[in-house]
Structure formats: C-alpha cells, structure tokens
C-alpha cells in the first residue's frame, strides 16, 4: 500500500524573517491597537470630536496624495536594488516633500477651520502638519526591507510605533485632552517609527541634498502619482461633502462607520497586500506563471472569506455599535451596513492593485481609479439629492465595483 504523505508545516520556515507569518502577526496587532484606540477614544469623545480630527487627517491625506512621488513602490518593484547614493536621492525627495506638505497644511489651516465649521480647532489642524514631515524624514531603507521581504524587522517597528500611539492617545483622552489625544498619539508613534528606521535599518543613506540618479524610477512612479491624485478624489470627496454640508458631528458618524468597517474588513487585505506586493514582484521576476498562480489562489480565498464576513457584520451591526461605541453612535448603523460592502470590494481591489503593480502594470490601477471618479461625479449629485448621506455611500459602492471590474479584466491579460 502507498503511504499518503501530507505536507508538513515547518516551524522554522513559518518564523523565518521573510515568512507571511510576520505580516499577519503585524497586522493583527497593528489593526487591533488602532481599533482599540479609535473605538475607545470615539466612545469617550463622541461624534463631534472625531469629526474635527477627521478634518485634520484628511487634510494630511490630501497633501500627501497630491505630492506622492511613488518612489517607495518603485524601490520595491524595480528589477535592481537601489545603491546607497540612490537611496540618498530618494530620502532627499521624500524629506523635501514632507517639509513642503507640512508648510502648506499650516498655511491653509485657518481656511479649513472656517470652511468646515470647526470653531477653535485651528491648532488641531496645524498639529497635523507634523505627520507628513515625520514620515518624509524616515529612512528609505524601510522600503529596501520590504523589497527584500524582511518582514520580521518591519513588523517589530510597526507594532512598537502603534503600541506607543495607542497608549499615548488613550492616556491623553482619559486625561481630558479631547480631540488632541488622537493626533498627539499618532505624532509620537510616527516619531518612534522614524527613529527606528534610522537606528536599526541598513544601508543608511547619506544625509545630503541630492536629487540625481533616480530617473529610472520615474516611468513607474509617475503612474503611482497619478493614481494617488485620482484616489485622493475617491477617498476624500465624500468626506469633504459631508463635512462641508453637515458639519463635524455628522462627519464624525460617517467617518466612524467607515472606519469601523475598514478595520473589520479592508485593513486585513490592505495589510496582506504589504506581503503580496513584494512577493508577487519577486515571483514575477523569477517565474511569471508562478506569480499568476499565487495571485489566483490568493484572490479566491480572500473573496470567499470576505463574503462570509460581510453577511455576519450586517446582521450584527446594531449590537456591535451599541456594545462598542454606545447609544450615541446608533444612527450610524445604516451607513455601516453599506460600508461593509464597500470595504469588502476595497479589500479585493487591494489584492488586484498589488498584483498589477508587481507585474509593472501600474497604469491599469490608475485607469481603474479614473473610472471610479467618473462614476462618482455622475452618481453622487442625484444620489445626494434623493437619499442624502446614504446615497453618497451607495454611490461609492457603484464606483468601487466599476474599478474592481476593470482591474479584474486587466489581470486576465496576465494570468490567462
């Protein structure tokens, strides 16, 4: 009789520095800490304070998206590892970007304070300008670590920063710091992450002003920048409309329902894409067919899991909001039921984006985002008129579905 042999799990392989185990562990801890921080602070502060912080954070997101160089993805995807001098040019570019974005945010803070009816939140908006600065001066060796799939090292840094962020934020919220507690926690966490990238990662780039030597990244990174600009409209357009028309309290309810759905659905897939992008890229460089097989397995398993989670979360939504956030947040339940669908589609998009960028087709992801924008521009005005904030959420669903369909079509040109 022939003995049936089952594949054995290798403990050493499962805990090697490049194993997916570290990415999964990182994301479980990271997203768990973020969830604890936002949900507990949301329960303490209420919708209006969360709405004020949301304005500050999407101001940061707008500035970073408009100035996205795409260099981090280009370093990970490129066929040849960057030299130390090239990393110096990457650092100069990213640091300059951080300084400029921070300065612009400080300058426009009074305008945003007036437009979004925030009252005395001017300092809160200006404080957010520190985030792009801290991210910009971090060592670009962080991207080399991701390129080389040294996930254990990356996980230790990310979790350490998130733990400190959570502890500081909760301590300040309980001490009565209000909306500032969220931002100060994020700033302290980013400071630790930036420090650790320089203290623990090699090669350390030279700290001097140097922009030359990275022209070969431009062809790839320009599509990343274009995609970031388009995604800016996709990710912030709805929040701007809600905040401008309805004020910080409604924005807080909208943002928290979206954020909670993201934590429970999209974050896991987005986190997994941090493993899949360099893995797809490495497989594609060695064997394109192996990369295509890995993509098909990954997208199938993730799609099945998402379908189950969406059904469960929609059924449990009222109880979830009542237990986790309290009665003040119950009006946001209908929005949450829509957002779990949106975030499930977003999770699939994260996997599609990872694969398309890994095989060098960043153009397809930008085209998909453009399709999404067109759908939103057509659908949001009538949807808002007839159904208000709920109509905006359903318009997002249609746009995301259209973008996902286009990227799925583009992947068939590679995997079939």
Give the terminus-to-terminus CA distance: 39 Å
Low-confidence stretches: 1-12
Major β-sheet profile: none
Strand content: under 5%
Radius of gyration: 21 Å
How many separate domains make up the residues? 1
- Total strand count, please? 0
Order of helices and strands: HHHHHHHHHHHHHHH
Global outline = globular
What would you say this structure looks like, in words?
The structure is a single chain. The chain is mainly α. It has one domain (17-415). 81% of the residues lie in helices and 0% in strands. The chain has 15 helices and no strands. The two termini are 39 Å apart. Belongs to the polysaccharide synthase family. Its main location: membrane. It is found in: Cell membrane. Keywords: Cell membrane, Membrane, Transmembrane, Transmembrane helix.
């Amino acid at each position: 009789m022939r003995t049936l042999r089952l594949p054995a799990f290798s403990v050493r392989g499962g805990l090697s520095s490049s194993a997916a185990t570290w990415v999964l562990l990182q994301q479980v801890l990271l997203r768990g800490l973020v969830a604890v921080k936002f949900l507990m602070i949301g329960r303490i502060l209420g919708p209006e304070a969360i709405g004020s912080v949301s304005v500050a954070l999407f101001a940061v997101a707008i500035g970073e998206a408009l100035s996205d160089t795409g260099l981090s993805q280009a370093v990970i995807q490129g066929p040849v590892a960057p030299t130390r001098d090239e990393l110096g040019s990457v650092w100069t570019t990213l640091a300059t970007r951080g300084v400029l974005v921070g300065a612009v945010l400080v300058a426009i803070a009074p305008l945003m304070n007036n437009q979004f009816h925030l009252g005395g939140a001017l300092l809160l908006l200006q404080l957010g300008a520190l985030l792009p600065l801290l991210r910009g001066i971090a060592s670009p060796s962080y991207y080399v670590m991701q390129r080389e799939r040294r996930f254990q090292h990356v996980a230790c840094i990310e979790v350490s920063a998130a733990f400190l962020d959570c502890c500081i934020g909760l301590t300040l919220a309980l001490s009565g710091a209000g909306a500032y507690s969220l931002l100060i926690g994020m700033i302290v966490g980013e400071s630790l992450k930036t420090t650790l990238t320089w203290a623990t990662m090699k090669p350390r780039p030279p700290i001097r002003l140097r922009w030359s030597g990275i022209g070969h990244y431009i062809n790839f990174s320009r599509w990343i920048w274009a995609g970031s600009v388009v995604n800016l409209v996709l990710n912030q357009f709805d929040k701007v409309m809600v905040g401008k028309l309805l004020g910080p309290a409604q924005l807080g309810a909208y943002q928290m329902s979206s954020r909670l759905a993201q934590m429970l659905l999209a974050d896991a897939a987005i986190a997994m894409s941090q493993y899949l992008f360099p893995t797809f890229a490495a497989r594609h460089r060695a064997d394109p067919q192996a990369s295509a097989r890995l993509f098909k397995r990954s997208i199938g398993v993730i799609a099945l899991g998402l379908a189950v989670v969406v059904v469960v979360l929609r059924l449990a939504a009222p109880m979830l909001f009542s237990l986790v956030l309290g009665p003040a947040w119950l009006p946001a339940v209908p929005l949450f039921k829509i957002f779990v669908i949106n975030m499930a589609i977003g999770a699939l998009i994260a996997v599609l984006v990872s694969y398309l960028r890994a095989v060098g087709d960043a153009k397809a992801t930008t085209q998909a985002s453009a399709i999404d924008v067109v759908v939103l521009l057509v659908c949001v005005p009538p949807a808002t008129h007839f159904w208000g904030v709920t109509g905006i959420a359903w318009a997002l669903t249609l746009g995301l579905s259209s973008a996902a369909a286009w990227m799925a079509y583009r992947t068939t040109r590679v995997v079939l």
